[in-house]
Task: structure prediction
Amino acid sequence: MDDAVCSNDDPNADNTGPGLSRRQVLAGAGGTGLLAAVAPSVLRAPAARAAGQAGGGTPEQVHLTWGSDPATSVVVSWATPGEAVAPRVLLDGAGPGAGRRVIPAQAGGYTDGLNGETVWTYHAEIRGLRPDTSYSYAVTAANDTAATPLWASVRTAPVGRVPFRFTSFGDLATPNTSWVLSYGQSAYAVQAVESFQPLFHLLNGDLCYADLNPTVQPEVWRDFGNNNQASAANRPWMPCPGNHEIEFDNGPQGFTSYLTRYLLPDNGVPGFRGYWYSFRVGSAVFVSVEADDVVYQDAGPLVSGPAALAPAASTGHPAIPAGTSFYIRGYSQGAQTAWLRRTLAAARADRTVDWIIVQMHQDSCSSSATGNGSDLGIREEWLPLFDEYQVDLVLCGHDHDYERSFPVRGYDSMAGHEVSTGAPVQTRRPHPVTTAPADRFDTSQGTVHLILGGGGTSAPLDDYGVDTSDGLRQAKVFTKPNRPIAGSAAGTFTRAAADAVEDATWSAMRDPATGYGIGVFDLDPGEPGGETSITVTYYHAAGADPTNPNTGVAGTPNPDYTKFEAFTLFRPRPGRPGRGRHPGRPTALVR
Ligand SMILES: [Fe+2]
Result:
């Protein structure tokens, strides 16, 4: 091999996917044969893009996130091909005579640490909005060359115990199949969000896999942003980082591209804004955490060799030797877990909060056979907190499939076995509080975990583990780091799959028909002294797997999302009957 690519060579890992050949990796990474044309020992990234190129300040990649209070604030974010002059948001007020506000944007940006390109980004947090109200807005600049500014609309969150809908998936990629792991389904996935008209969408990490296209990372992000715009300009898309948001030479944990593109609610932890955060909508607190901080698995970028990866000369960054992976476990030194405990404790102590919903990328309850599986790091660090504070629901991605757990609480000790020796190993297997077939689950008794990793990547992982000795469901579990090891070819490196397995007694439902789908969540606040509920409906895009790992049947992207299953989560609601439907406007939101 005479090239270097930034990938995980493990065919079982999600960042190359099963069956992804070296030729495909190169085609995706270069797109136009760029990599094949370089010197055999070192890769060179393309020259930096010139500032002020055609397009100037014309907005693109427009997307919304919630502001500090979703009932009254939203953040409008975008990028431009060149540097914008006087970037701003125009906001049309709600109601007659409300007039138009002009909100100047904060200009930001960064220079990609691998190819040296400059990226211009902008954020405008709009505050003082009315709850549960729709607003029209436009983004523009003095050097916006579009015939008319881009107009869209957004609706603020309601307050109190009120019904609302949100949606979720992870692992989206882009529709541009020139890029590694991109696939046409990602455009249909964005359409699917719009078809369900949620108040907001949760994007569970591994946004676009730019790290697997190391010489063209900004171009991949651009395709991702422009694909999302069809929905994310109309309703907040709230992300969390995944392992593929980690990029060489882009910040201490590699998140510069991600952090620059999103302005997320402040977590108050110095140095870590945007890594993790929480927000509240109605009677639900949403907690977004950054699991690269706690997982054992090493799934960030890897220079698989034999050549080094050489950043563009303009960056001044040295070549990255073959065998280098960007492994960041433990980077917050406990700060994130301490924040998580504080956040969960405050939420559960608030009698106006019913639901606690956690979003993260990696999985503590996944039995994908071709994917990564589960990770003991999450089970050790965070599942005890989920138990203590009765987290209702955990939404993940990472494995490109659909899996639902039974409600779990506590763990079964020493239920795992080492893959290599068969010896017993501690996996802290989550303990299901029930395994009875049902479509209603009391989440005050246990936490339900969902894998929603079927946004749109080209590598579905809907092939699930089975213990051949007893026919039971089986999950792989990382219980220690799988750092790079020598590959089969001279000078190459790879990473091993998970080191342990366990019978997945917590697994309640898996979808072997397709890896692609979307979760739709409808919250019903219920009545005092009764129950509050969330009805979950998972829709899938049958036949969309490029090759179904179970049947071998070839498929194509499918815009038709059909119902796979529906179930209801419920929990008792405090209070006495007859006190009315909306008694609980939270003190913090009174103004
Ligand atoms: Fe991932």
Summary: Residues 217-232 form the longest helix (16 residues). DSSP finds seven helices and 33 strands in the chain. The first strand starts at residue 42 and ends at 44.
